[in-house]
Amino acid sequence: MAFSSADLLAVCGLLEKALSQDESLRKPAESALTAGENNPGFCSLLLEIMASKDINVNSSARWLASVYLKNNINHCWRVRRDSPVTDEEKSYVRNKLLDLIREENSQIAVQLALVICKIARFDYPKEW
Q: What keywords are assigned to this protein (predicted)?
């Protein structure tokens, strides 16, 4: 998928702010993340953050990325004319998910399993 490291950093920053107890930081970040669901590539960005074990990405942000990904699958994965998730992105996400099957963080692993189940429900057997 075509996204930049600046995109990853921006979404990661929003996820970290969405975890803040300071409402003045949290609410705008949550709104921006919700708005991001309508952008092509958003699922891929969330998946990359979820997969990141980089020291700069804390596990709470990775977990929140997995929750947003799971919820975004519910809203955007079905075949619709206005869906922001392209067939190319769906293929990328399906392949990348299987690479992450050995996630060590149990909270992220649970969300990962739910994402796989939801996608399988929509795509299996025709697409996956």
A: Nucleus, Transport
Q: What band does 88 get if pLDDT is binned at 50, 70 and 90?
A: very high
The residue with tokens 């399906």 is 94
Measured distance between the N- and C-terminal CA atoms of the chain, rounded to whole angstroms = 19
pLDDT (tens digit, 9 = 90+) per residue, 73-82?
Answer: 988 887 777 7
Evaluate whether 60 touches 19 at the Cβ level (below 8 Å).
Answer: yes
Q: Does a cis peptide bond (omega within 30 degrees of 0) precede residue 125?
A: yes
Q: What separation in angstroms does the CA of 115 have from each of 9, 81, 94?
A: 23, 22, 10
Tokens for 116, please give them: 């796989």
Type of residue numbered 91? S
Checking 77-83 for CB contacts under 8 A at 24+ apart, the result is 77/118, 77/119, 77/122, 77/123, 78/122
